[in-house]
Amino acid sequence: MQQLIRALQEVLGPGGVLTGDAARSRSGSWGVMHCDAPAVLRPRSTGEVAAALRLCHAAGQAVVTEGGKTGLVSGARASSSEIALSLERMHAIEQIDARGRTMTVQAGATLQAVHEAAEAEGLIMPLDLGARGTATIGGNIATNAGGNQVIRYGMMREQVLGLEVVLADGTVMSSLNQVLKNNTGYDLKQLFIGSEGTLGVITRAVLRLRPLMPARNSALVATDSLEHLVALLTFIERELGGRMSAFEAMWNTYYRIASRGPHLGQPPIADTYPFYVLIESAGADLEGEAGHFLDALARATELGLVQDAVLAQSEKERAAFWAIRDNIESLAVLWPLAIFDISLPLATMADYLERTGARLEQRLGELRWVTFGHLGDSNLHLAIALGGDDPALRHAVEEIVYAGLAGIGGSVSAEHGIGLEKREFLHCSRSATEIELMKTLKRALDPRNILNPERIFRL
Ligand SMILES: Cc1cc2nc3c(=O)[nH]c(=O)nc-3n(C[C@H](O)[C@H](O)[C@H](O)COP(=O)(O)OP(=O)(O)OC[C@H]3O[C@@H](n4cnc5c(N)ncnc54)[C@H](O)[C@@H]3O)c2cc1C
User: Fold this and answer.
1) Which residue, of 55, 208, 251, 308, has the fewest CB within 10 Å?
2) How far is the CA of 311 from the centre of ligand 1 (A)?
């Protein structure tokens, strides 16, 4: 390995390779994703990524790609036998074509930097998530991230027009397509979107931008049952005629914890209601949009679907609503905990939660769990307090949560991916034939199995 590291230092130049403590002291979100790699590569260009991978491929050296390390399934966590490759020095926003509504960026650009650059042109790149300040576009693409506006704009896959990818042997596949329609053979970029770094290193992307909708309305709403919460989703979606941009649900268990914190003021609504939801609409009509939004909420209240509601009167109040929704760190009070990112058909949700809750209670004795998520996308997050660091208990809890999904068309990962943590449960959501085809693709593109080995599945 030392010989390889010296060769990599030569190719990547000063500052291009971190070793020893400089490599190991880097941490990820919640501090859990520390890096055990003996070396972290920090290329500055696609050419340098290609040169580094050529060397690693020749040596049969495993390489783990790092974006912002905010991923929640340990995909970017390198072990002591792996070399990490960080895109942190490749963060340029290279070009914005306001007329064609595209942005060309390097993969290490943060999501927030992309948002700010798009907004300066009166446009948006609509993928959004709580880790926006640190998560990178490369990581968002590699995980096919979801987030807060999927209901209106789709997942990351929908925002990508073109990609540049370096393959395991250093071959550069430049497919920086800029147009919406391009049916010329296989759409190769799709292979890499959501492949969690196992098929290639994404170095640049062409993103699709949308018009910035100036009339944005936000409300924090309380309701009294899951049935009413789901009915509210259908009702508001219809009333707003496609302009609903977020429907973020929080069970009382989540709201009670997440609405308090040193950076938050008084909770906008009392924490005594069973369910809360952050609803947003975004439209072009500055005068009319607020009226439509208010009317829709008023009608929902008349129908008994809303028990209490607060409208954001300013950007500051809107940010305060989102601060509650994004206050995932507050769940640390439940530590050690198991966090789940599942999806399931809306019609099965109440029954699934009741059955799973009963089984968890039986196994854990006392059940302390919180539920929240992107209800409009049938995506729930569960955080379950384990009460101790017992791997067998964690595993038992995982089995209970995932077992209930298999028969109802649910998924063990709605948006975070599989990484190292859900590998064992991939079969709950994918057939043996599907998994075998994934392995065939992996073998074809990375025959020496050097890119993020063991992530998603074992070969
Ligand atoms: C507070 C918080 C809120 C979050 N909310 C959401 C949410 O709402 N929706 C959601 O989907 N996720 C969410 N996440 C998870 C996370 O932010 C996303 O998965 C994000 O897309 C990861 O980006 P990253 O740059 O941090 O990637 P990393 O964590 O560094 O990497 C993630 C995976 O992608 C691979 N990878 C990274 N960059 C590249 C590249 N250039 N080429 C190839 N492979 C690469 C890594 O090897 C790893 O397997 C949240 C995380 C936090 C901490």
Assistant:
1) 308
2) 31
